[in-house]
């Protein structure tokens, strides 16, 4: 065992605790925003922004993607592109039926 391995572990635990605390604060913010009387599109936008930040934190630190290589990011980008295409596919088929 290396002499600095205990310090490395302490540093990792500190990062995990910080990320966990940030996730808890963002959960409280999410609940707080839900009590505001926002228009539905604005409320959905705010909720999606908070969820994206929380999901990014979980993926980067708890799933250890912060130190992964470039192919992982390309796979995630490709997945996101397919998701966007599949979300708009019903809209495009509906517009095709309207003759637009």
How would you summarize this macromolecular structure in one to three sentences?
This protein is mainly α and 100 residues long. The protein has helices at residues 5-34, 40-62, 70-97. The protein has two domains: 1-67; 69-100.
* Beta fraction: under 5%
For the largest beta-sheet, the strand count, sense and barrel status come to:
none
Task: Work out the radius of gyration.
Answer: 20 Å
First-residue to last-residue Cα separation: 68 Å
Low-confidence stretches: none
Oligomer class: single chain
Secondary-structure-derived class: mainly alpha
Count of strand segments:
0
Shape: flat
Helix content: over 70%
Which helices and strands appear, and what pairs or packs with what?
Blueprint (H helix, E strand, L loop, with lengths): L4 H30 L5 H23 L7 H28 L3
Helix pairs in contact: 1-2
């Amino acid at each position: 065992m290396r002499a600095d391995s205990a310090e490395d572990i302490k540093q990792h635990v500190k990062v995990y605790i910080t990320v966990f605390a940030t996730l808890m604060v963002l959960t409280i913010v999410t609940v707080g925003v839900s009590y505001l009387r926002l228009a539905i599109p604005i409320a959905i936008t705010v909720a999606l922004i908070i969820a994206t930040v929380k999901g990014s934190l979980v993926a980067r630190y708890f799933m250890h993607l912060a130190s992964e290589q470039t192919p992982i990011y390309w796979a995630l980008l490709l997945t996101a592109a397919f998701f966007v295409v599949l979300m708009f596919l019903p809209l495009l088929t509906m517009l095709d039926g309207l003759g637009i």
